[in-house]
């Protein structure tokens, strides 16, 4: 797996290939086409990276400014099925990326779909605090957990 700075074109390259759990989460959170939301997230992110597996974009991720506070950013990651083939490399990723995010935004906060148990476990493993109870979120009031790293 290769991690590099990304461009919005990398989000376009990922369109149509989102993992089912990512597709479901984006739909539940926004009620819009997840492929379109992916590009918008990339466009609004202050910092943006992608992960490549065998020369293909396997994930696009970054951090966007929060509307809540100037020192708060919203980290996000959307990936394709190829992402799971290099789990060890992906678990090392936060050691490099999270400190860069926190130099710009000391507080990282966002929401994760309660059905996305794989992402919830990964967030906990990389040091994010995940709320104990889900709350209704998005246009369909689906259960989501808030997560944070300060």
Can you tell me about this structure?
- The mean pLDDT is 92.
- Strands 1, 2, 3, 4, 5, 6, 7 and 8 form an eight-stranded mixed sheet that branches.
- This protein has five helices and eight strands, in the order E-H-H-H-E-E-E-H-E-H-E-E-E.
- Helix 1 packs antiparallel against helix 3 (34-44).
- It has helices spanning 8-14, 20-30, 34-44, 87-104, 117-125, and strands spanning 2-5, 47-53, 56-65, 72-79, 107-113, 129-130, 135-137, 142-149.
- The protein is an alpha+beta fold.
Brief sketch in words of this structure:
This protein is 37% helix and 33% strand. With 150 residues, it is of the alpha+beta class.
List keywords for this structure.
alpha+beta, Aminopeptidase
Largest sheet features: 8 strands, mixed
Ranges where pLDDT stays below 50 over 5 or more residues in a row are: none
Number of strands: 8
CATH topology: Aminopeptidase
Number of helices: 5
Distance from N terminus to C terminus (CA atoms, Å) equals 28 Å
- Roughly what percent helix? 25-40%
CATH-defined architecture: 3-Layer(aba) Sandwich
* Oligomeric state as shown: single chain
Class computed from helices, strands and strand pairing? alpha+beta
The H-and-E topology, N to C, reads as: EHHHEEEHEHEEE
The radius of gyration is: 14 Å
**Which homologous superfamily in CATH is the superfamily?**
Gcn5-related N-acetyltransferase (GNAT)
Overall residue-averaged pLDDT value: 92
Strand content: 25-35%
Shape: globular
Count of separate structural domains: 1
Q: Please give the CATH class.
A: Alpha Beta
């Amino acid at each position: 797996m290769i991690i590099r700075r990304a461009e919005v074109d990398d989000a376009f390259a990922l369109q149509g290939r989102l993992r089912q759990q990512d597709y479901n989460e984006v739909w539940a959170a926004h009620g819009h086409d997840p492929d379109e939301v992916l590009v918008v997230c990339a466009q609004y992110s202050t910092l943006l990276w992608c992960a490549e597996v065998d020369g293909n974009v396997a994930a696009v991720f970054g951090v966007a400014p929060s509307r809540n506070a100037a020192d708060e950013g919203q980290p996000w990651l959307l990936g394709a099925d190829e992402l799971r083939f290099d789990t060890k490399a992906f678990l090392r990723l936060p050691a490099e990326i999270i400190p860069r995010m926190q130099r710009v935004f000391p507080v990282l906060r966002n929401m994760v779909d309660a059905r996305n148990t794989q992402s919830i476990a990964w967030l906990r493993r990389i040091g994010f605090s995940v709320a104990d109870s889900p709350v209704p979120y998005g246009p369909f009031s689906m259960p989501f957990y808030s997560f944070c790293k300060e």
